[in-house]
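pasting for ref
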Amino acid sequence: MTLDPQLLARLGPLQIRARAVMEGVLSGLHQSKLHGQSVEFSEHKEYAPGDEIKHIDWRAYAKLDKHYVKRFEMETNLRALLVVDASGSMAYGRGAMKKLDYAKVCAGALAALLSRQGDQVGLVLAGVSPEAKTQFAEGVRSFLPFSAAHSHVQEMLRQLEVTEGTGPTRFAQALDFAAEKAGRRALVVALGDLFDTEAVPALKRLRSRRHDVLCLHVLDREELEFPFDDPTRFLSMEDDQQIDAQPRQIRESYLSELKRFLEETRRELGRADVEYELVASDEAPDRVLLRVLRRREGGAKGSR
């Protein structure tokens, strides 16, 4: 059964929705020929600048024509840091789930999946704190360090549940904070709409520090297709700006600019070896995560 957002929205609390998505992903992985491995899905990782050349598996290179580095037992427990954009723009959405709701479900399902297999997971909520100050860093609303404990994941889900999308985008600052907190090499999963112009450079900086970086670029279907016809007042969700426009007159230029933005984002992140997945918030989250994980099973990062 596909867990589309309309169905998920009726399931109640985030804990239930995240668990349903996790079980959907597990069901799909169990049907895969490569099932049974960790989220890394291999005892190897693709070579990155800074890795020891002496650890390259030349047999894997001969077979796959790619350089892979052997991972030793002490390295096989994955550490993953989830970075969720909770700025005002993420509160947009007129479908069953807003962008932030969708990102929460994906993050919650990944956290549950990682914890289930004994991997450590942490959380960074990006955005301006509703209070005047934050105890962490500018652009960081909340932070939970790495742990694989069940109680830790429950607290993570609780914090995600109560988080609302408000205020200006500070995603890049949160990603830089994540780079510091990730410490040694970790998987960093970024979930946001990337409307922060510095977000892509921040993702590239994360990768340059040898972290494995996955970006789930979450946009609403209306943002992707601009289906408006009647005269419309567009309101900014992060400040007081607004604009009155005739959608039919600006649709072509809007879609052209969106295409340029998406292509440039995909190209820049691809060059930096950051895995990129464009996601519409009306897609079934279990299918999206399964698509990403199966691609990682095959040992090949890619962009869509």
